[in-house]
Every structure is written in structure tokens, then in C-alpha cells.
# Entry
Amino acid sequence: MTNATDFILLNTLLNTKLQKGVEGQLSLHGISFTEFMIMHQLMQAPNHTLRRIELADQISITASGVTRVLAPMEKIKLVEKQANPRDARVSLVKLTEAGERIYTEALVSFEHSAESLMSNVSAGQLDEMLKLSGKLL
Amino acid sequence: MTNATDFILLNTLLNTKLQKGVEGQLSLHGISFTEFMIMHQLMQAPNHTLRRIELADQISITASGVTRVLAPMEKIKLVEKQANPRDARVSLVKLTEAGERIYTEALVSFEHSAESLMSNVSAGQLDEMLKLSGKLL
DNA sequence: GAATTATAATTGACTACTCAAGCATTAGTC
DNA sequence: GACTAATGCTTGAGTAGTCAATTATAATTC
# Structure
């Protein structure tokens, strides 16, 4: 049993724990973890707008996954579809004002639970993990 | 944006990458990541046997998830069901000889891909990640 | 500039789970 | 030792995705 193997198995369990912990808080805002990740990416994009494929790449799901996650978000107007005048194939996704508000509120809850879930490591150790995870990505 | 939040989001992407990387190799042996985790736990258990609930806890899925994953594994005889004479409610799961063989073969592939996926960090850094992940679990 | 190839997005069919309800069986209580 | 509560497991219904095929548009090549 190598350490690399051990790490992958351990990290799988850790990831499940972290995700469940955060999801509990996000559900109070009516959004899922995946929806939060989508809004998080849109929030950082210029004009709060991205192509569906870029979104897919950034959160590591398929294009069809993006279509399926966005459908209900459009219905409740968290995001809106926009055409790209230069290329009729692409449909741009934009975070609405309402979406921006919900995201900002949800982010507070996310950060609180994140801090609490990570409270067993020091600030320095957290920096180290961030750095090393970045190298692996 | 706190580092704790950043870490959780980053780790989610990392986990997806690691899991997909390993799954590609495991599929050559005809097993999924979850099936591998189950066999891995059984392999380490006394007499290669565990209760379904213990299995569920150890790999962080629900009891019903365990039932659903094990069904096809029983059909192809990777594991077998055993009654517990002391308590008729529990049904024990045991790794068969065939299961043991498949696991051992699959483990080699798992370790190779794990090493390769983790090759961007040093042995010391890997130890550090293992230690810190352990603290968070 | 017509024909071929590539890209963006969606859809139908499937998979791998979860959750809530149910059925046995065992444990705890009086 | 009968009654209630708790535990172990399974099942039906639902959810969040994947993959392969399809449609529409754009880019490339000849």
C-alpha cells in the first residue's frame, strides 16, 4: 500500500465530509453545492457571464451536466441565457441581480461552515494544503 | 473569500480529477471506484468479512447504497453473503477467493495510477498531506 | 464557394447513488 | 414475558449527474 494510494482513498472520504457539511448550510439558501460552484464562477467572470462550456470545464462536469443544472436556475431567475452575436452556437450564461444576492448570502454561510470544518488545522497548515492541492490539480 | 472556502472548492476539483484518473485504470479490471473501496475494506477486515453497516460507514455511503453496490458483486461472486448466527438481522459480507484475486490485481493498477497522479508532490509533501487530511476527517 | 470537419448545446437513455418507508429481528422496560 | 423502541437491511421513488446521438452553426480545405 503506497502513500499515494492511501491519500486518494483518504481524500475521497474527506471530500465527502466537507461537501456534506457545506451542503447542509447551502440548503438553507435553497441551493446545492454544484449550483453554488456555478454562481461562484459566474461571480468572478467579467460581466458575470460565461459560456456553458467554460462553466463545465471550471467545475469539472460535462456540458450536458451544465445544461441540466442551469435549467431550474433559469426558471427561478438566478441566471439568464444570452445569445452571442459573434457565434450563434454559444449561449452565454449570466448571473442575475437576484442570483448575485443569493450567492452573496450563501457565501457567508459557506465560509462559516468552511472555517468550522477546517478548524482542526492551523492557518499555516491550511496554506500548505492549498499550495500542495494546487500543484496536483 | 477565506482560505477554508478556497480549499474546499479546490479539493472538490482535485478529488474529481484523482477519482477519474484511477477509475480509468480500475475499469480495465471491470470494477468501479466504489467497488474497489468496498473490496479494500473487506481485505483489511478480520476473516475478510464485515457487516453491511460497517462497510457503509467506512466508505461514507448509506446502507441502501451498500445493498445496491453489493448486489451485482454477489452475482458475479466477488463477495458472498453470510448469516450471523447471533443476530438474524445482520447479513455479513465476505470477500471470496475470486474477489481477493481481482482486488489484488486491481490494487497494482490503482497504485500505479495513484503514484502518477501524485507525482507533482514530493514524498515528504505527500506525508504532510496525509497527516493534515487525517486531522480533518 | 461547396463540401467536410469541428464545436456548442441539448436530449434520451442510463447509472449510482439518496431518502423515506417498510419488514424482520433484537434489546430494553415495566 | 408482553410492549415498545431500536437496529439491520431492503425497496420504491426521486435526483444529479454521465454518455452517445442529434441539431445547429462555424471554420477549414480544396
The longest strand of chain B covers residues 79-83.
